[in-house]
Amino acid sequence: MKAFFLVLLICSLVHGNNQAKISINFRDITGFFSTITTCQMVVNPMLRRGSPIHDNAFKALKDLDSQMVRMAMWFPYPHLSVAELTPPTGNPRCGTASEVFGKVPHLRIFCGTPNGIIQSIDFASFGTPEGSCGQFRKSSCDAASSMKIVEQNCLGRNTCLIPVSRDVFGDPCVNVDKRLFVQATCSNAVNTTSWDFQYMDPIVNDFMDATGNVNLMPKGRDVVASFSTSPTWMWNTDQAVPVPSDPNQVDWSYEQGTELRDFSLQDIAMYYKRLFQWYTQGGFTDEYGVYHKSGYYYEFSHWEIGNEVEDEHDMTVQYYTQVYDAVVEQLMQVDPKMKYVGMALENHYEWNWYEYFLNPKNHKANIPLDWISFHFYGISNERTNVSSYQVFFQSADQFLNEVIFNLKNFPT
User: Fold this and answer.
1) pLDDT digits over 229-284, tens only?
2) Which residues pair with 306 in a beta bridge?
3) Burial of 307 from C-beta contacts in 10 A (0-12 / 13-18 / 19+)
4) Going by DSSP bridges, is the β-strand pair 12-15/2-5 parallel, antiparallel, or unpaired?
5) Which helix (H) or strand (E) holds 194?
6) Whole-number Å distance between alpha carbons of 356 and 364
7) What is the rounded CA–CA span in Å between residue 315 and residue 321?
8) What is the C-alpha to C-alpha distance for residues 251 and 243, in angstroms, rounded to an integer?
9) Residue pLDDT, tens place only, 86-104
10) Which residues in 331-340 are b (16+ Cβ under 10 Å) and which e?
11) Structure pTM?
12) For the chain, give me the number of helices (H) and strands (E)?
């Protein structure tokens, strides 16, 4: 690690015939900066074993010997970045969705098998219901028409769409944000899950080996794990989002939805807890109590929640903060020492995110705010003209100046 000490040079200020002398004590340290080498690996089919660049790519990663390396398992290749591509198939079948002013969102309830039929609605409430799947409960704000309307839309079908609007259900409590919770039972339900690590494991294994983090061996370099893509079936969409059968096929349309189907956020939190346990605890227990053994006991120094979330799922900072808290709360139960990285913004200048997210009052109690991340893209319009690359350095200078200025001026 190289340390750089800020010092002031002895100088004189001349103004007309007047001369001001400044005395400096060079033994006073006014600031301390440190830099480390780092890089990022973004998942791609060319990193799979057998590709023409696989061996050299991971050799280069090893030889670079970066002190901190970021492993980005990202959505354009769903098989390489998501461990549970389809939802559990058993009962109950649940969903939640919030009313959105200016448009009518839909809540989709679907059976876990193609031949399943929705045979009963066990819970339905439009208003301000609470709880998680299997434990929904009504509040004093509850539309009396809820059960009837949901049954009319869903009974006897494999999949149904229910409009989430006071124009449909009536308004059980004026000037209050409302949501719809539904729990159903399907016929021909079988308790199975789709957990599958066959495509992810080899890439993670090779990455960890290249960074000196061999399984069951002492920890190597710091690794920021970014399994940023959550299963799309966890998000409210009007129809199921297809997944390419070919793991090497790029799919830029996989990541859809702006609101999670589970209002309690426990589905996504438990997904990441199980994923984390797979790679650090030797295995996990799934939604139906079945244990999945991995044999991996890796150690991640950092875990990043999401990636460019203000774009990929169009999240507000308020909603993202709730998701961050839910995920971190579960991961802390497994590893209380790991550090957590928040925001992962597409742009560095969205200062309202910094102000809200970095305020502990906006988080649950005891949720750590260890690190934040944001992205900067230095772009040249002439990528083949090396002499034009100077613009990268100019952009980087501006980026650093903006970040330093704004962070210094945030209230503490």
Assistant:
1) 999 999 999 999 999 999 999 999 999 999 999 999 999 999 999 999 999 999 99
2) none
3) buried
4) unpaired
5) none
6) 13
7) 9
8) 8
9) 999 999 999 999 998 878 8
10) bbeeeeebeb
11) 0.89
12) 10, 17
Enter the tokens of residue 178. 């409302």
> How many other CB atoms are there within 10 angstroms of residue 251's CB atom?
16
Helices 317-334 & 266-280 angle (0-180, nearest 10): 40
Which of 18-22, 97-101, 146-150 is modeled with the greatest confidence?
146-150
Residue 302, amino acid: H
Higher pLDDT pick, 393 / 150: 150
What burial class does residue 412 get, using C-beta atoms within 10 Å of its C-beta: 0-12 exposed, 13-18 middle, 19+ buried?
A: exposed
Query: Which CA distances in Å does 203 have to 79, 85, 233, 239, 409?
Result: 12, 18, 24, 31, 41
Residues 6 or more apart in contact with residue 123 via CB below 8 angstroms? 136, 181, 182, 183
Which of 390, 322, 394, 308 has the alpha carbon at shortest distance from 357? 322
Question: What gap in Å lies between CA 44 and CA 269, rounded to an integer?
Answer: 25
Q: How far is CA 30 from the centre of its chain?
A: 38
| 21-30, 49-58, 102-111, 379-388 — most confident range | 49-58
- Read off the tokens for 28: 């006073």
Across the strands, what pairs with 14?
19
Q: Whose CA is closest to 374, among 357, 391, 360, 361?
A: 357
